[in-house]
Structures are given as C-alpha cells and as structure tokens.
C-alpha cells in the first residue's frame, strides 16, 4: 500500500519539484500552457516576442531577472546513424536559469542573438541529460545534429559540452539544452521569438505577490503565476496525469483496506472451530470478541510495522529500477502521512475487521462451526 | 485445585450427575418447503433420528464410554448431555436441573462452571501460549491474573508440561497439544468432563499415554467419553453402545482404576 501511494505521490511531487528546482518566483505565459501533440512532448509556445517582453519586465520595479525559456520539439541524430530521434529542446538565454551540471560545462552565453540581429556566431554547444546520452549512445565531446525539421537537423551540428539533469527533472522527459537564439535558429522561429514562459526572479526582500499584482496590471494579456499556481495550471490540463496519480493513491488505500480485511478474515476463519470450541466450553461472546480484537490489533501493529520498515528499502530499489528502465528519478516518493496511513489502515481496519469477524463467529452456534 | 467454579465433584453422592430420559434428537435434511413449495407439492425433508429414545444415568465419579460406528449418535448424545444441543423430545438434567429450562446464556454459564470438554482436534488458540490457553476459561470466571497463571502452571506441571508453559501450540507435538486441551478442560474444576474421540488425532502409543494421564489428572471426576476405538474405551467403567441413535447394549467393564 505504501509503495502504491508513494508512486501516486511521486507523480504529483515530481511536477512540484520540477518547478521548485527552476528557482523562479513567477512564471509568465500567454494563454494556456499545454503539451504539444507532436514529437517528444514539448510545451506549445504561444508567448511571442519574448525577448522584448522579458526586457520590459526586467526593468519593472522589484524584478531582478526576467528570462524567456522555450521548450520545443527537435530532431536529433548522431554522426554514426541516419536515424533521427525526437527530443524536447530547451532554449536558455544568456544568464538564464541555473543549470545544474553533473559532467562537463554549461551553456556559455547566447552570442548568436546579438541584440536581435541573429548575426552573432553560434556556439553550437549543447547540454544533454543522462537518458538522452544513453538513448543516443553519445558522450561529452561528440557531435549531434539538431533541428526543428529533418532538413534543419542535417545542417546543424552541435557539440555536447555537458550533462545536466535539470530540465529532464523539470519536464520528466529527456531534453537537449542550448542557447535560446540557437534554438530559435534551428527551428526557424527567429522572427517571432516564441517562448514557453518568461521566468521572473524578484529582488531580495521584494514581495512576490506584490510584483505579481503589479505585472498583472501592466500586462493583463498574460498569465502571471507563482510556482504553485503554474504547476496547478499545467496539471489542470493534464487530467489523465492527475487521474492516474489520484487513482494510484486511492488504489493504494483501497487495496490496503481490502488486503487487511482479507488477511484478518482468513486468519479468523481458520480459527473458527477453535472459537466454536471455546464457545462450547462456556467462553462468552464478549471475551471471544475481545480475544479476536486483540489478535487483530497485534497483527495490525506487526503487519503495519513490517510494511513501514520494508517500504524504505523497497522504494529505493523501485526508484533505481524505474530510473534504469524509464529514466525517471524519484518516481516513488514517501511522506510521513503515507507511513501513518499505512499503519493506521493496518491497525484500525484490522481491528474493525477482526471485531466484525469475531462478532459473526460469536453469533454462530458452536455446533454449526464444528460441522 | 482451588475451585472458582460453583460445581464441584461429589463422589460420595449417590444422585446422578447427568440424567437423560427418553431423549430424542431429530434433524431434518434440507429446508422446510415454503408456500410455493407446498403448492407444487414439495414434500417435507426427510427426518433423521440422530438420538432415539435414549435414557441413561451417569453417577458421580463414573467413567462412561459411548461406543458405536460413525453416525451412530455418539457425538450428538455428548452434545445433548453437555447442553450444547437441545433434545427434540425427552429431558436432559444436570443434578436434577432440566437443561432445557435454562436460557442460552445460562447454559453457556453452566458449561463454563460444570463441564469440561476435550475435543478430538485440540482447538487451541495459536496466538496464545500453552498457559494462556489453559487459563482462558478462568478469565471468563473473573479469576485474578496471578491466580490464573498459578493454577494453569500447576495443572500443566501435573500433566507433564511444566517445561512447555510458555510455548505456543505450533511449537508443541500433537500429544502435548492434547494435554494442553485436557488441562483447559479441567482448569475450572468441572464436575463432568466430556471427551469426544480424545485420541483420534494421536498415534496409538501416544493416545494410550494421554488417556492414562487424563484419567490420573481428572482424579475422581465423572467422564463421558465417545470413541469407536476399543483400546480407548478400556479405561471406562461401563460402555454404552449406540446404533442408529439407539442404545443397543450397556456393558459394565471391570473397573480398572
């Protein structure tokens, strides 16, 4: 039960942690934020002219940084193969969100933008995540072809300069990260400069909600949300994801209750003739039911305790397995209330099930149980 | 044994412990026809006379065996004598008290205070130790914990299980489990002990040993013992043979006590 609930919570928490990990205070979007139906599942970019807009917002009182951030679906291939894979590419501008590096170096600026002329030299450097590296069987120093179309991909080579889990964790899917201008270049969108978000960090000591309200007044055509609001906005459109995560939690609780009732009923059913013998010897219903409840309590505490003790190593094993198979890290996440619920269900439901079974047995004439 | 029970063995008394007069127990095979069943002519279910006009008296201190093949009515007669079953006709009295006059709750209390029952299968609670299993009826009688433990320990020591008092049933052999069951039947100091095939789950040697210990530890209590095994019945003062629910012979054996 605790494992199933952990999976459900993990699905929900991963999204929350993704937004928290980005270390932004506010998220600006234009219209709905939704997953595209194409390719590897990038966000649909409806926030146009993002460079100028983020520059305006950067100058707003209380705003320390405002950067556009774009996710787009791109084709990627290696030099060794003509086969193209689709990935989500993340475009980050100079000084963009902090990208946590586990190997190599990060993105070094965005010189190609050149104040909107797109005449600067392209760095042709890309950061990928571990799963992308494994999928393409590439490592730092190797080159890959990337483009918004197959033709564009064949013409644009990038060198892998580092490995970073940042956007893979945030999006829950393999990504390639490159300077924003170069993403716009290889996807043919330098004219409209679309972004998925403009992310805003407020000044130290500034109130996030005050800055949010000010920006909402200045830019009423855009949605300006906090981390939590942005996650909710994304998830509200992902009904299937929410339903799956919720169903996992409900399934965990339901199966926990069903298993506990089944186990207790089985244990007590196996002893029904013993209870009949005790009734025959003059043991009263109340003592019989008390004895059964005592058994239920002991089984509940012992079973619940063992379940909790086994959850930690089991979560660790399952998470490693999930990471190896599908690339998700921390798919199962535990919380104190999961442990509490597990123990609570084991003890409370176990006791109720035992009491009910004991009461039923005590109501049955002993000779019927002997037959 | 200090008796918390209200009844105690009275070997000197000449009045019988248990009396059955013209006791008949009829079971019906299947359910009674309902309204539609009667309209379509469904007949009454066949009646089976499990016990048929049985009369007997069992004196204090007697060991009486009930013999007969399977289905002869031994177990049903034991159940009637202990008040677990009510006769269809006739009366069963315990020390001149008609058991049919007692309510279900009173009959349960009567069994607790006056009757010990030993089953073929030991029916011990797996989660309790041997001592706790033996002491359980004393909980019902309201005996304090320290006294319960003392009496259960003493009884288990007398029956040769002094080194097994904290063991659970799963850690005991079949013979040891039956000794625990015998101790549980005797812990309330009952006047009458009912034993239904007490050696049925044991090998012959173990069964004989258990019977000897049973007789010894039961002292002069009245025992009614049902068995189809001749060797088991040899400990009895007399044996009543049943066939199709009726008594066929009453055989008094040489007292081997």
Description:
The complex is a heterodimer of chains A (371) and B (257). With 371 residues, chain A is an alpha+beta fold. Chain A folds into two domains: 31-206, no CATH class; 241-370, no CATH class. Helices cover 52% and strands 16% of the residues of chain A. Chain A is built from 13 helices and ten strands. In chain A, strands 2-3-8-5-7-6 form a six-stranded mixed β-barrel. In chain A, a hairpin with a 6-residue loop joins β2 and β3. In chain A, α1 packs across α8. Chain B is an alpha/beta fold and 257 residues long. Chain B has a domain at 60-86 and 104-252: Rossmann fold (3-Layer(aba) Sandwich). Chain B has eight helices and ten strands. Chain B has helices at residues 35-39, 74-82, 104-114, 130-140, 145-158, 174-186, 204-218, 230-233, and strands at 18-28, 47-58, 63-67, 89-94, 97-98, 115-118, 192-196, 222-226, 238-243, 246-252. Chain B has a six-stranded mixed β-sheet with strand order 6-7-8-3-9-10. In chain B, α4 (130-140) packs across α5 (145-158), α4 runs parallel beside α6 and α6 (174-186) runs parallel beside α7 (204-218). The radius of gyration of chain B is 19 Å and the shape is globular. Mean pLDDT of chain B is 85; it is low at 1-12. Chains A and B meet through α10 and α11 of A and α3, β6 and α4 of B.
Write a compact overview of the structure shown:
With 371 residues, chain A is α+β, with helices and mostly antiparallel strands. Chain A has 13 helices and ten strands.
């Amino acid at each position: 039960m605790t494992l199933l609930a952990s999976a459900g919570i993990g699905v929900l928490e991963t999204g929350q942690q993704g937004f928290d990990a980005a270390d932004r205070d506010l998220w600006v979007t234009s219209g709905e934020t939704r997953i595209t139906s194409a390719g590897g599942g990038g966000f649909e970019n409806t926030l146009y002219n993002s460079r100028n807009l983020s520059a305006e917002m950067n100058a707003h009182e209380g705003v320390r940084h405002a950067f556009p951030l774009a996710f787009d679906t791109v084709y990627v291939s290696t030099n060794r193969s003509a086969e193209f894979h689709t990935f989500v590419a993340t475009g980050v501008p100079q000084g963009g969100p902090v990208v946590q590096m586990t190997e190599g170096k990060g993105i070094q600026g965005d010189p190609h933008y050149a104040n909107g002329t797109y005449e600067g030299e392209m760095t042709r450097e890309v950061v990928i995540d571990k799963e992308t590296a494994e999928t393409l069987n590439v490592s730092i120093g190797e080159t890959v072809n990337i483009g918004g179309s197959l033709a564009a991909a064949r013409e644009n080579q990038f060198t892998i300069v580092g490995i970073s889990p940042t956007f893979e964790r945030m999006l829950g899917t393999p990504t390639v990260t490159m300077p924003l201008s170069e993403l716009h270049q290889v996807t043919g969108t330098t004219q409209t400069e679309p972004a998925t978000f403009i992310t805003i960090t407020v000044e130290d000591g500034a109130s996030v909600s005050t800055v949010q309200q000010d920006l909402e007044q200045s830019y009423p055509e855009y949605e300006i949300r906090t981390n939590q609001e942005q996650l909710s906005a994304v998830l509200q459109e992902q009904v299937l994801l929410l339903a799956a995560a919720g169903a996992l939690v409900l399934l965990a609780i339901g199966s926990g209750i069903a298993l506990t009732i089944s186990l207790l009923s089985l244990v007590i059913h196996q002893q029904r003739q013993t209870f009949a013998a005790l009734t025959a010897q003059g043991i009263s219903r109340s003592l019989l039911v008390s004895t059964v409840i005592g058994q239920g309590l002991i089984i509940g505490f012992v079973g619940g305790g063992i379940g909790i003790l086994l959850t930690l190593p089991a979560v660790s094993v399952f998470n490693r397995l999930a990471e190896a198979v599908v690339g998700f890290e921390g798919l199962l996440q535990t919380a104190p209330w999961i442990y509490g619920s597990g123990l609570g269900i084991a003890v409370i439901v176990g006791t109720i099930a035992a009491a009910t079974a004991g009461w039923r047995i005590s109501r049955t004439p002993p000779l019927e149980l002997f037959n | 044994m200090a008796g918390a029970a209200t009844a105690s063995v009275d070997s000197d008394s000449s009045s019988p412990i248990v009396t059955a007069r013209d006791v008949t127990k009829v079971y019906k095979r299947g359910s009674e026809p309902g309204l539609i069943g009667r309209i379509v002519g469904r007949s009454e279910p066949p009646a089976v006379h499990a016990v048929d006009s049985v009369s007997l008296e069992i004196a204090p201190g007697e060991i009486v065996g009930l013999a007969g093949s399977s289905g002869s009515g031994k177990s049903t007669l034991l159940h009637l004598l202990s008040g677990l079953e009510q006769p269809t006709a006739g009366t069963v009295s315990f020390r001149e008290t008609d058991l049919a006059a007692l309510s279900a709750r009173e009959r349960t209390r009567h069994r607790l205070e006056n009757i010990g029952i030993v089953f073929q299968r030991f029916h011990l609670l797996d989660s309790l130790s041997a001592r706790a299993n033996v002491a359980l009826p004393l909980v019902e009688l309201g005996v304090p914990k320290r006294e319960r433990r003392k009496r259960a320990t003493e009884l288990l020591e007398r029956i040769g299980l002094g080194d097994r008092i904290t063991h659970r049933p799963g850690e005991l052999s079949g013979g040891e489990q039956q000794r625990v069951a015998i101790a549980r039947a005797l812990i309330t100091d009952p006047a009458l002990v009912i034993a239904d095939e007490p050696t049925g789950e044991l090998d012959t040697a173990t069964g004989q040993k258990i019977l000897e210990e049973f007789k010894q530890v039961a002292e002069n209590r009245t025992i009614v013992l049902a068995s189809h095994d001749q060797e088991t019945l040899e400990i009895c003062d007399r044996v009543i043979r049943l066939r199709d629910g009726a008594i066929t012979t009453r055989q008094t054996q040489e007292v081997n006590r």
